[in-house]
Design a protein that fits this description.
8-stranded mixed beta sheet; alpha/beta; 2 domains; single chain; 285 residues; Metallo-beta-lactamase, Chain A; 8 helices
């Protein structure tokens, strides 16, 4: 009987140790802390969509991809039962950035929209503007110099340099919103589809960032050596569809990033990319 009792005590001790180690290891994981920023580059195929969960609990969505797949991806990364998005940013109204947002504003309570208001003849864009008006969602036309704090996190607009509301732009990619996200020492630069010729206009701004969302799905016109030298990212993310017909990402862009020892993540190869930061370090998942 004493032998059996000692065995049970030993097993119980091992069990307690295992539980303790499990709890400690999970407590120390970055995901477990409420002081962490989480950013996601959603796998929506040949398009862009990025979700941000701030340390203070706000939800931010940049673009919505080419179809309704953004809803499935948001369902995987947003808190269960969370049906509110505090800020939606439309970088520019090309369909591969806009289409999914039409479903987002119908399925979620959206507190505010930021966009450029550029003139672009498109049934999808017309529908977008009508839905925003009908739902009375505050719609802010933004330009460089504007920003908003979300607790300790901050979103800043770097481009366009001047208002584009109701203006026609020959190359709509160059009407993209460029914004940066800062949280303590960690930062992300979201380039939209801004092409190299327009990127030269922002070289004098604060572009240094930990993470670069490469412009225009890694197209050859989406990244230059000049801007890469200024940004100096540790990580580059390319949002691109599998076996796309555009040849994205361009081999020249991949080679340039490798030349500068930038770690490359691609949604066509890695799926949705999650990065967590405590404002000092970061973890890629």
């Amino acid at each position: 009987m004493n032998h059996l009792k000692r065995n049970l005590q030993f097993i119980a001790s091992i069990f307690v140790i295992v539980i303790f180690v499990f709890l400690v290891s999970n407590y120390s994981r970055p995901e477990a802390s409420s002081n962490n920023l989480k950013i996601y580059f959603l796998n929506v195929g040949q398009g862009d969509s990025e979700y941000i969960k701030t340390p203070s609990g706000q939800d931010i969505l940049i673009d919505g991809g080419p179809d309704t797949s953004v809803l499935n991806e948001l369902g995987k990364v947003m808190d269960f039962g969370d049906r509110e998005i505090n800020l939606v940013i439309l970088s520019h109204p090309h369909a591969d950035h806009l289409t999914g947002l039409l479903e987002v504003i119908n399925r979620f309570k959206v507190d505010e929209v930021w966009e450029t208001g550029v003139d672009y003849p498109s049934a999808t864009y017309d529908n977008w503007r009508s839905e925003i008006s009908a739902k009375q969602i505050p719609d802010k036309i933004v330009k460089a110099g504007e920003s908003k704090n979300f607790g300790e996190a901050k979103i800043s607009i770097l481009y366009p340099l001047s208002p584009l509301e109701n203006k026609k732009i020959d190359n709509l990619n160059n009407a993209s919103i460029v914004n940066r996200l800062d949280y303590k020492k960690f930062s992300v630069l979201y380039m939209g589809d801004l092409e190299k010729d327009a990127q030269t206009k922002i070289l004098s701004q604060n572009l240094f960032a930990t993470v670069l969302k490469v412009a225009h799905h890694g197209s050859s016109n989406g990244l230059s050596e000049d801007i890469l030298k200024v940004i100096r990212p540790a990580i580059a993310v390319i949002e691109v569809g599998k076996k796309n017909t555009y040849g994205h990402p361009a081999p020249s862009v991949i080679n340039l990033l490798k030349q500068y020892a930038v770690r490359i993540y691609r949604t066509d190869q890695n799926g949705t990319i999650e990065i967590t930061s405590d404002g000092e370090g970061y973890w890629v998942k």
